[in-house]
Amino acid sequence: MDNIVEVRDLCVTFKTSEGSVYAVSNVNLDLAEGKTLALLGESGSGKSVTMKSLMRLHPPHKTQITGSIQVAGRDVLALGNRELSDMRGKDIAMVFQEPMLAFDPVFKVGDQIAEVVMRHEGCSYEAGRDRALEMMECVHIPSPRKRLDAYPHEMSGGMRQRAMIALALACRPTVLLADEPTTALDATVQIQVLLLLRELQREFGMSMIFVTHDVGVAIEVADEIAVMYGGRIVEQGPVDEVMTDPWHPYTQGLLGATVYPNMDPATRLVSIPGAPPQLYRQITECAFAPRCPHATDECHDPLPPPTQTDQRMARCIRLPEVAGALPRASV
Amino acid sequence: MFLYICRRIVYTIPIALAVAVVCFSLVHLAPGDPLSAVIPADAPAEVVERIIQAYGMDRPLPVQFFAWLGRAVQGDLGFSVATGRPVTQEIGRALGYTFVLSLAAAAIGFLFGILFGTLAAFFQGRWSDKLVTGIALFGVSVPHYWLGLLLVIIFSVQLDWLPSLGGGSGSWINRARYLVLPAITMSFIPMGIVTRTVRSTVADLLGSEFVTSLRARGLGSSRIANHVAKNAAPTVLAVMGLQFGYLLGGSILVETVFSWPGTGYLLNTAIFQRDIPLLQGIILTLSMFFVALNLLVDLLQTLFDPRVRRN
Ligand SMILES: Nc1ncnc2c1ncn2[C@@H]1O[C@H](COP(=O)(O)OP(=O)(O)O)[C@@H](O)[C@H]1O
Ligand SMILES: [Mg+2]
Question: What is the set of domains in chain B, with CATH numbers?
Answer without folding.
Answer: 94-310 (1.10.3720.10)
